[in-house]
Amino acid sequence: MKIMHMISGGDVGGAKTHVLSLVQGLMATDTVRLVCFTEGEFAADARKMGIPTTVLQDNNLLRVRRSILEMIRADGCEVLHCHGSRANLMGMLLRGKTDIPMISTVHSDYKLDYMGRPLANLTYGTLNRRALPRFDAWIGVSANMTQLLIARGFDPQRVFTLYNGVAFPGAEPRQTRQEYLARLGIEPDCLICGIAARINPVKDMTTLVRAFAKAHAQCPQMRLLIAGDGEQADEIRALAGELCDRDSYRFLGWEKDIDSFYNALDINLLTSVSEGFPYALPEGARMHCATIASEVGGVPDLIEDGVTGLLGASGCGKSMTLKCIAGVVTPDEGHISLDGVTLFDSAKHINLRPQQRHVGYLFQNYALFPNMTVQQNILTGLRHENDRAVRASACAEAIRLFGLSGLEKRRPSQ
Fold this sequence. Notes:
The protein has 414 residues and is α/β, with parallel strands linked by helices. It has helices spanning 13-26, 41-48, 61-75, 85-94, 118-131, 143-151, 177-183, 205-218, 233-243, 258-264, 280-286, 299-302, 318-326, 354-357, 374-380, 388-401, and strands at 2-7, 31-36, 53-55, 79-83, 102-106, 137-140, 159-161, 191-196, 222-227, 249-253, 267-270, 290-294, 310-312, 335-338, 341-345, 350-351. The protein has a seven-stranded parallel beta sheet, sandwiched between helices. The longest helix is centred in the first third of the chain and has 15 residues, at 61-75.
């Protein structure tokens, strides 16, 4: 089979590992071409691995589309496989211009890909959300990701699960643990914790640094290594400088010698609020690292809590705080007031019912009645409107706005 894989080319970390290892593996049985939209380390590494790689670094989308169509015809390409928002956008632009099947691998929750970057979310994020449903099939990198796509309306008959993977056993690390730590000025008898990830809000390194600061206070021999970079890097460095002993942590930037990095760790950390199936965990396991991770995405498919690692709820309590304010959850103790009104006070035995608090709460995840249809769920939120005609009109408008026409009589699971 002749397959074309498309990706932006600026990718690092798990996405880079996934695509390069996948394409290299496919080359044993298929004819593969890799197309990137940015010249850089990704394309250079692909070429070193012997992968036929073409870079189309051009801001003119129509010209890029024309070049891809020419390659598809010249190569006799039978499948187009896209990875990430830029590739998905190009896939959407190619619809109707070629009749070959188009597939997209969804590596992460696409609604969170640009968390903390409102402009990028408004542009790339919006375009990606419009492009994804137009593909012929989708691959989720974990069962959790597949279920997420199905829950968002993707055809379950055309969504498939294909887990990320790494080769076991791995290559021998280029540096021993002692050599790697000596380069960083760290004694080998220290307890080394580390994370290799993009420094952005999805990875929630704020929680990581705060937790490490508390742990280091009880275990002064503990050290933290952060391998990665990103839009939140300056903020996380400042937080570490404020909370942690100066010699207790190191920011390494993007680490190319990832096997030596994991070989130097005692504990592999991952504090993400959302994940697909992170390469960081099997890469760490390959180097015999213990694992502490947030219980999100496909992580529980890999780590059995208390057996092969420790899992914990993600985040630093933002959702729990909102639930306590709304009255959905009752705190063990404390005081909550809003606009001068006491909502909760454990000492004075005050705990207003949610209906008395006049606070709206929008759930992060689906909060639908599973036994009701789409129409019935919407009408439940309009139950205080006495005029049936007004209720029916408002329900119809909500169905139109959210693109649910034709699904009115379906239940959430259907």
